[in-house]
Amino acid sequence: MAPTEISTIAENEFGSAFEVQIKSPNSQQKTAAQLRLESYAKMERLPRLKTMEGAPRSGERADKARQQNEQKREAAERVRMGLARSNDAKRQGLAEQLEKAHGLRQGAIHSRKERAAQHYEKVMKAKGGFHSTKIGEVEAKRQNLEEQLEKAHGLREGAIHSRKERAARHCEKVMKKKDDAQQMLAMSAAEAKQRLEEALLQKEALRDQSLAEIMTKATKHNEKVAQKVQEQQIAMESKRQSSKTLPPSERLLDLSMPWQMTILRFRLWRRKDSYTAQWILVSLYFLLALLAVRYSSWLLKVKDALPDSLPPWLELEELLMNVGGSHADTGVDADRECTVEELVKPGPLFVDDRVSTFSVCSPDSSVSVLEATDHALLPDSQADGDATLALPTLVPTSPTNADSAAHPAARDAPPTGPRFAFGVARYIASLHVVLGHLNARGLAPSSVYLCCWGYTWVPWFFMLSGFILCAAEMNKPRQEGPVEYVARRLVTIYPVYAFGLLLSACLTSAGPPCWVLVLQAWLLQAWVPTITEWGLQMQCWFLSCLVVYWAMFPFLFGMVHRMTMPQAILGMVLAVCVPILYLLIPDLFYGNASWYEYHSWGLMRNFEDSLVVMLKFHPMCYVHVFLLGMLLARFRILLHDIAGFKELPVIMDFLAPVGYLGLLLVFNVPMAAPPYAKLSARIFALLPLQAAVVLGLAGVEGLREPFLARFFARLNFLETYSYCVYVMQFICMKLWFGQEYDLSFFIFLIASATFVQVFVQKPSDKLWRLSPGQASWLVPAVMSLLLILLSLRWTGVPDHVLPDKVEGDGYMDIRLPLRLEAQDWSATGGGAFINPSLTLLEDGRLVVAARLHRRSSHLSHFHGGSLLEEIWISKILLGSVAMNNKSWKLLNRSGEMPEILLKLWDGLQMADGKPWIYPNMCYREKWLPQNRTMMRFVVTGPEDPKVFPLTRKGSCAESMAGCWVLRASSDFCHVNQSFCEAKCNSRWCSPHEVQVAFNSYTPKEGKSCDHRSVSQMFLASGIDVERPELVSQGQHLKCGQLDHSEKNWIPFEREGQTYVVYSMIPHLVRELKGTGSCGQQWRSIFPKLEEMQSHLLDAAIRGSASAIYLDAPNATARLPEPHYLALFHAADLKVRRYVHYAYRFAPKPPFQILQVSKPLPLQMLPPMPGAPPFAFASGILLREEQVILTYAAGDRESRALLMSLKQLDKYFE
């Protein structure tokens, strides 16, 4: 019955009388009020009387309103009675229908019994020759069947009776709710209006009162804050004025009290969150670094050498002196007084080699100050053994200088031999390199595309080194051999490099062999491709190249400094274009321009890997970049001859910004990336843009300095620390105590680099200059001995080993205690247990499926060629262990669990009955005609199992073939096992059996492997874990592409049916049928995943493990509704790096993704020495709001991450 509707249909202008209509959708009868309104509309409008004689009386209006209200109540009462009668009639009709249905069912059952009896009599008559005892057995069976039918009839009657009772109770509830709703609707409109007005007035009064209180509190708070700010400003100003009058020693004592107060305040923060404490520690550490810079050279009395006019915000004179290029730490003769004329007079510095003291006054020096910045990353204040001080740092900038007043343009023109404004550019490039290394380790934000391009700045450092060396040499040539030149230059790089090597050797418990350490001590690691990627301080490979270029510099300079303008331009064009052959020549052999992508970091499997490493790190592969920098310096000198070109200053102004904009475009827009960027961006693709940055920041001598160079020159002191930032990056990553590598890590890195510069580089610089020739061979020899002595305490292989238990913030990570039976271990040759998967059976047993993995290779020869086989030994292992409540409590509390004994899954067979092993499987191979070699990749068995329950109770399958499809729950074959097998001719599926989904190369099955040598997904059902030798057949899941690799599907159960998540983008879910094909499919989109994929163009987002059903609103506060929990990963297959996430999706079609978590804290291991570490998630299990995530660390061991549902819920945003 449609609900009644009450609406106002008439109301006079005074609002004292109105009418309502209680009507149904089928009622079209007009009320008296409507008829009266229509009659009013037909009447002629009477003229309005000015007097009050014709106005109706108030008493008559009241009587009329009361009559109308009585009529309304009577109408409402009639409607209510009608509703009650109709509901009674419906209830009686429903009962009659139920009785009729019951009678029909009884008749059907009776007729079925009669037919069964008739059929039985016919059968008995047909088999009249049977023995009397056989007839008795048949009679007993029939009687048993009748008893079962009677029992089923009784159960059905009880179910019908309970259903009737529930229906009756439901009808009563519905009628009660309808009566309550009618009473509420029958309430007077005047009362409702009055109550609404009273509520609005009360709410308005409360709001006004609350606003008044808030305004009063805000006014008092603002007054207090303003007063405190004013008092603090006055105190700071008085302290600043008094501090100017104190000497540095008393000023240092004055700083001790604020330092003690800072320590006391930090104690108050101990109970705050760890992130705040992390920032406090980093800030204090950075403050210590600034104090170290300020007071490191205070005793050397260099205060008088500073200019008189300083910015008002820089009151720490020594700070400016140190970060701007102090000469006090490099041996400047501070006792000698210089005249103003000597200081202002342009000219190079002079060094007295006999006493190792510098003079900044003599114009007869034989060394140009330009060489103060001749290295790529290094501080120019220590780049040369002959000159360490830039002249502009010492010359007072007096506004009364006559020359400056007479020639205003001279203030913009760079003086002869100053430092170039490369400090900021070097520092930014160093930080970008660090960001790139963080990204390669999976520690940087994966959604920031800029992080992927940090490696491109290292060749730019070579270019910068060549440019500055050549510019300095052309400014003041000198005669010096390669050996002497390199020995003098080593002071700029070796002390910090040696300190980094020693510190790295002390921080690690395992490392490369001794001969590799000796090569690193002598800066020869880049010459041997097999060790470049896995030595200590691997990022310092560029120093090995830099030493070679310094040795070659005298010969290259003799060729470059005589070049004309056309020759210099031609040389720069060739330096950019010729390296294209580095990619094209190998392409002729491999037939693919992306041949280098097959190399994995740290792996040296064949000549191809060695060639990739050589192109990335070998010194001879970057000679053209160093030469390009020298040609740029020559080109800059030649531009001076066309200084009359009016547009040249404007071009120089825009040269560096255009170069930076082009680089930013490449670094942020994937479509702008050069092809084959991993090699081309290193060797040649970005060289024009980087050359524009160098030339645009250097400017042209005789012209005004480019505006970007003038801006960068203010922060040129940063170049002093850029080299230390580069060297210390991996050490700081190892020492970092924070959870995330955010801005606080970079502050920690900068502070550490500052300490190294102040306390390592500067003192070492003085000692080295006493005898550069002897130091150049003596220090590496001592370093070799120290590194060998430190390596004696190392244990194991040069890889770190994870402990048995790792505890973190709300989680615990343990090593799974898996063991293979002795006979199986000897039969297979052993290997690593990886990619474990767990499930829990009804009897409390924990079932484990894992993969036995080992690699090998085999080379054989045949007539006319060779066969090189790369073999992955792969077997699936199954096992179980009984877990009671005590065992689970012990696991959750201390991470201890009983040992799990695994067995080989020998019963797995193909459709043709053959065992699932090689050579019954297809394989992948490739013919290399250039060396007549067949490359064959072989996997000997199935891979990556995913185990999940078959059924929660005993069930009967549709056939004897397997348990892929179970019968409907109402089927009578589910009575027991004997009935299912004998009567229904089907297989009985036990709750102790499981299903295993796995991927494998396609079985041959008598067919050709053409276009079938790819990995596919398979499913085996009805597996008894205790007896894995029993035959079970793997069925091919033909839901995907048959000519492409299919893996990483996510299986899950819903209402007795198996589904798989086929892909993540889009989220495609498919239903599995018993034939191995797919039924329905549902597709949905999650915008956050699409955004992640847009930022990770080189990564593939794939599924992991299986999915589990969750309905725990108390433990999942961020999604209390029922849902499925699953895992996925973002895979960068070039470096084999995985980042794992958890996600939640809806339990009903279309299975829409609801939430995605932050990255999960899985422990990583390198698969072999020198290879990058990684982890791969493979299983998920839930028990009593405790989640267990299983994974393989570096293809070396199986581990499990344990955390509560509440803790996992915190990872979701």
From TrEMBL:
<keyword id="KW-1133">Transmembrane helix</keyword>
<feature type="region of interest" description="Disordered">
    <location>
        <begin position="43"/>
        <end position="117"/>
    </location>
</feature>
<feature type="domain" description="Acyltransferase 3">
    <location>
        <begin position="424"/>
        <end position="753"/>
    </location>
</feature>
<feature type="transmembrane region" description="Helical">
    <location>
        <begin position="493"/>
        <end position="524"/>
    </location>
</feature>
<keyword id="KW-0012">Acyltransferase</keyword>
<feature type="compositionally biased region" description="Basic and acidic residues">
    <location>
        <begin position="87"/>
        <end position="102"/>
    </location>
</feature>
<feature type="transmembrane region" description="Helical">
    <location>
        <begin position="772"/>
        <end position="794"/>
    </location>
</feature>
<dbReference type="InterPro" id="IPR002656">
    <property type="entry name" value="Acyl_transf_3_dom"/>
</dbReference>
<keyword id="KW-0472">Membrane</keyword>
<feature type="transmembrane region" description="Helical">
    <location>
        <begin position="720"/>
        <end position="737"/>
    </location>
</feature>
<feature type="transmembrane region" description="Helical">
    <location>
        <begin position="743"/>
        <end position="760"/>
    </location>
</feature>
<dbReference type="Pfam" id="PF01757">
    <property type="entry name" value="Acyl_transf_3"/>
</dbReference>
<keyword id="KW-0812">Transmembrane</keyword>
<dbReference type="GO" id="GO:0016746">
    <property type="term" value="F:acyltransferase activity"/>
</dbReference>
<feature type="transmembrane region" description="Helical">
    <location>
        <begin position="679"/>
        <end position="700"/>
    </location>
</feature>
<feature type="transmembrane region" description="Helical">
    <location>
        <begin position="654"/>
        <end position="673"/>
    </location>
</feature>
<feature type="compositionally biased region" description="Basic and acidic residues">
    <location>
        <begin position="58"/>
        <end position="80"/>
    </location>
</feature>
<feature type="transmembrane region" description="Helical">
    <location>
        <begin position="569"/>
        <end position="591"/>
    </location>
</feature>
<feature type="transmembrane region" description="Helical">
    <location>
        <begin position="536"/>
        <end position="557"/>
    </location>
</feature>
<feature type="transmembrane region" description="Helical">
    <location>
        <begin position="611"/>
        <end position="633"/>
    </location>
</feature>
<keyword id="KW-0808">Transferase</keyword>
<protein>
    <submittedName>
        <fullName>Acyltransferase MdmB</fullName>
    </submittedName>
</protein>
<feature type="transmembrane region" description="Helical">
    <location>
        <begin position="275"/>
        <end position="293"/>
    </location>
</feature>
